[in-house]
Write a structure and sequence with these properties.
With 103 residues, this protein is mainly α. Helices cover 56% and strands 0% of the residues. The chain has one domain: Orthogonal Bundle (Transferase(Phosphotransferase), domain 1), CATH 1.10.510. The protein starts with 8 loop residues before the first helix and ends in a 6-residue tail after the last helix.
Length: 103
């Protein structure tokens, strides 16, 4: 997968939304429910804003640590924080999203 590097605020915001959305979808595909759920809209917004989600339930006991870490690295709202964590841990999210032949 060939993606241009983010070079302005709009592009960086789009990248942040893109990766966060992939995290939400991946979480949903892995366990069958969304990562954020609240009894009210306010609770839901709070959980999303503060990144409050958990890996609970029997399904998560069979999900690999690599799978959980992949979701954790995507469900970070702030792109700069996400990139800093990935650099610190030598993670390449674009590489993980690319197929084996594209790495």
């Amino acid at each position: 997968m060939q993606c241009p590097p983010p070079n302005n605020k709009v592009t960086m915001f789009a990248f942040a939304c893109f990766f966060f959305s992939i995290g939400v979808i991946t979480y949903l595909l892995l366990c069958g429910r969304p990562p954020f759920n609240g009894n009210t809209v306010e609770e839901l917004k709070y959980q999303i804003r503060h990144g409050k989600y958990r890996f609970t339930g029997p399904v998560w006991s069979i999900i690999s640590d690599e799978g959980k870490n992949f979701v954790k690295r995507l469900l970070v709202r702030n792109l700069l924080v996400r990139e800093e964590k990935n650099k610190k841990n030598n993670h390449n999210l674009l590489g993980l999203l690319a197929g084996p032949s594209e790495r």
